[in-house]
């Protein structure tokens, strides 16, 4: 399965391709993670806050290819995407292992993935460099086997996503 | 007069590790401090109050390799509503993993925020193993680091301090497994249940659609 998860609506034609799922986070009700660790210690694998996020992280976990589309703020993901990434920690266990010579959480049934992150907005050189580092670091916590960051102006977002999806379709 | 504003950006501020770190900071700081939890509703108020301080200390955890979203939203609010006088910004960040270096991206984000908004960056403390360290024999490591941070902010002798449990990765994993197993036991959840590989009971829910 492939997942397009974006922080604003994108015009992308995937109707006849059920292998590709599309989630526009801006249309969903997702609260901030409260850091209760219920998803690790009370109801393992399930967030205790039963809003739309609980229907998003299973798709993140099940996808072997993901395309995240996010505005960049201060060199990181802007709020809409960041909120969801924080709410996705039920896909990990509390327990820690050594991965790439650092301590990281054990993953539950998370399919290793190829990730493409499309970053848009008014992004200067320093922010670009930092965002690349952030995605590289995410790779260890979010099961990215490989990752690529694509920067694009917001006006060209639809086109940029279209090209990436065409590449998936081979 | 010098006065330090402490803002706790943890999403669980009243019950957070950050709160305990902030308390230690206040205890060892030779200058007066005022402490505020960041809440959903007090962003504007904190932006206004900030003008009355020579220094601000942001205390917050690392979330998903970066700033917690509630704190990010506060910074955006601060960008839109700058205080009349901008204090020096110091930072106390803690992360759950052993390596304090995992905090570096969040610290660089803070530098970018400060550069874009004309704040000077003061002292920084990057703490690893911050979820558990205060409940272990290594509490002294955190206390010592916070003491140094508090003095450096108060005296304007700015520096970057890094600290974590003096443990090998393997021992850290052993200790953290103990910590989390005990955490689950408090809720009657066994270690093996905590180790489930299933997400949402192994079911793929209906795809969330707009406006449902
Ligand atoms: C949603 C979420 C994401 C987290 N992400 C990270 C992370 O990427 N790296 C890390 O070392 N710790 C991570 N942590 C652990 C926290 O940084 C750690 O538990 C910290 O001590 C919490 O501080 P607080 O009690 O002040 O909120 C995360 C915790 C939560 C709840």
3D structure, described in words:
Chain A has helices spanning 38-41, 57-62, 79-87, 125-141, 157-168; strands at 2-6, 20-24, 65-73, 76-77, 92-99, 102-107, 113-120, 144-152. Chain A is an alpha/beta fold and 170 residues long. Chain A has a single domain, classed as Flavodoxin domain (Rossmann fold). In chain A, strands 1, 2, 3, 4, 7 and 8 form a 6-stranded mixed beta sheet that branches. A two-stranded antiparallel ribbon of chain A has the order 5-6. By secondary structure, chain B is α/β, with parallel strands linked by helices. In chain B, 40% of the residues lie in helices and 17% in strands. In chain B, strands 2-1-3-4-5-6 form a 6-stranded parallel beta sheet, with helices on both faces. The chains are: A alpha/beta (170), B alpha/beta (212). At the A-B interface, strand 2, helix 2, strand 4, helix 3 and strand 5 of A face helix 3, helix 4 and helix 6 of B. The structure holds flavin mononucleotide. Flavin mononucleotide sits between chains B (10, 12, 16-18, 61-65, 94-97, 102, 130-131) and A (33, 35, 86, 89, 141). Flavin mononucleotide (FMN) sits between chains B (10, 12, 16-18, 61-65, 94-97, 102, 130-131) and A (33, 35, 86, 89, 141).
